């Protein structure tokens, strides 16, 4: 069986993950400059070598090969923003097997923008999850309720999205990271309230615990920024967006994660 980089059966529950996607906000040259700045933030924090905090970056597709070179030898892991569901005659898609060749460790799947604007339903997301796992790449599965609701209701909706992505084959979920991103908080001026995030993730862990997955890495995204992580409970880290396009903000969140894991 392929060993995936994020296996809930082997990862310690205290491990925190801090990652960032550039989406399509940067051009090629700007992306390389940003990656070098992120590499500097990581290199100046030698405590990351202990592995208690796992940093990752997800640039746009054309940048992936150069990104692999820039972050080589550092604790940074490389991700991709999407993937196809198979090799073969799929014009314009990128196969997970090729991403694996390029050193990609995780792939973002099921993001709200893909679901809404590219009409990727649960069935498509499940195909992509299966293909990523077969290629040895961990899916970073994006899930979240569309409208704000009570925490228990939101957790139930997220649970169903995870179940659909693994087609009820819950063993597959052990090799994933869950990115909890309430759709209503994506692109907002502020993230969801810390108490709400903590309650939703806590309830979700109870549901996942029925399948032995209570310790599954669940990170929060949705206008996440410095200052949020220390307020959260039950959460395994942050998935940052535009706030981390300033590499110093990425470094600030790394410091918060390192402080949390040192307790």
From TrEMBL:
EC number(s) given by UniProt: 5.3.1.1
Top enzyme class: isomerase
Entry's Gene Ontology molecular function annotations: triose-phosphate isomerase activity
Pathway field: Carbohydrate biosynthesis; gluconeogenesis; Carbohydrate degradation; glycolysis; D-glyceraldehyde 3-phosphate from glycerone phosphate: step 1/1
Domain of life: Bacteria
Compartments, as annotated in UniProt: Cytoplasm
Gene Ontology annotations for the cellular component aspect, listed alphabetically: cytosol
Catalytic reaction list: D-glyceraldehyde 3-phosphate = dihydroxyacetone phosphate
InterPro entries to which the protein is assigned, alphabetical: Aldolase_TIM, TIM_sf, Triosephosphate_isomerase
Keywords assigned: Cytoplasm, Gluconeogenesis, Glycolysis, Isomerase
Keyword Transmembrane helix appears in the UniProt entry: no
GO biological process annotation, one example: glycolytic process
Location, primary (coarse class): cytoplasm
Record text on subunit structure and interactions: Homodimer.
Family of the protein in this entry: Belongs to the triosephosphate isomerase family.
Name of the protein this chain belongs to: Triosephosphate isomerase
The species this protein was found in: Arthrobacter psychrolactophilus
């Amino acid at each position: 069986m392929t060993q995936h980089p994020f296996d809930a059966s082997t990862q310690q529950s205290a491990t925190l993950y801090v990652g960032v996607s550039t989406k399509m906000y940067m051009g090629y040259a700007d992306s390389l400059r940003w990656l070098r700045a992120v590499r500097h933030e990581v290199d100046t924090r030698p405590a990351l070598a202990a592995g208690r905090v796992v940093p990752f970056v997800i640039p746009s597709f054309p940048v992936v090969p150069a990104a692999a070179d820039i972050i080589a030898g550092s604790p940074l892991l490389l991700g991709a923003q999407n993937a196809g569901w198979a090799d073969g005659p799929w014009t314009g898609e990128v196969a997970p097997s090729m991403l694996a060749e390029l050193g990609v460790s995780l792939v973002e799947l099921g993001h709200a923008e893909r679901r809404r604007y590219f009409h990727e339903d649960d069935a498509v997301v499940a195909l992509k999850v299966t293909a990523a796992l077969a290629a040895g790449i961990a899916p970073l599965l994006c899930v979240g309720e569309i409208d704000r609701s009570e925490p228990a209701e939101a957790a139930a909706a997220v649970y169903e999205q995870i179940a659909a992505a693994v087609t009820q084959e819950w063993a597959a979920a052990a090799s994933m990271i869950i990115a909890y991103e309430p759709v209503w908080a994506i692109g907002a001026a502020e993230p969801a309230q810390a108490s709400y995030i903590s309650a939703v993730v806590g309830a979700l862990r109870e549901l996942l615990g029925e399948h032995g997955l209570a310790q599954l890495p669940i990170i929060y995204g949705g206008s996440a920024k410095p200052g949020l992580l220390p307020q959260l409970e039950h959460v395994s880290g942050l998935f940052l967006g535009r706030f981390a396009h300033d590499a110093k903000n990425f470094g600030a969140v790394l410091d918060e994660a390192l402080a949390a894991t040192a307790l």
